[in-house]
Write a structure and sequence with these properties.
single chain; 118 residues; mainly alpha; Arc Repressor Mutant, subunit A; two-stranded antiparallel sheet; 60% helix; 7% strand; globular
């Protein structure tokens, strides 16, 4: 799994790492039971400190998306799958509502992008 981090971004590196993992979960690239790279391996691959990755993993653990076990690494939890399902359901409801009022796919996309930026 390839994670991209922008070292020049104003977004903290740990937050970028957590966001990249959340994105992989949302896209279905990671599923319950999948193992994440060790913190040391991920830190080396994206050129950040070990504690930066550990901070990202701690946030994801606190959100219930991963389980971290000393010596065994981090594993995606079943809760991650239910979170994904919840977001997908919200997206489905949004698209249905938007279609009822005549929005095009392009307009829906722009609306989501604008909302994500704010």
């Amino acid at each position: 799994m390839l994670f991209r981090i922008d070292h020049s971004s104003a977004i903290p590196l740990a937050e970028q790492i957590a966001g990249a993992i959340r994105g992989a979960l949302a896209r279905g690239e990671l599923t319950p039971g999948d193992r994440l790279p060790t913190a040391r391996t991920l830190a080396n691959s994206v050129d950040v400190g070990l504690h930066t990755v550990l901070r990202a993993y701690a946030v994801l653990r606190d959100e219930g998306l991963i389980e971290v076990r000393r010596g065994r690494g981090a594993t995606v939890t079943a809760a991650a799958d239910s979170a994904h399902v919840e977001v997908r359901e919200a997206a489905r409801r949004f698209v249905e509502s938007a279609r009822r009022v005549g929005m095009t796919t392009d307009l829906m996309t722009r609306l989501v992008e604008e909302t994500a930026r704010s």
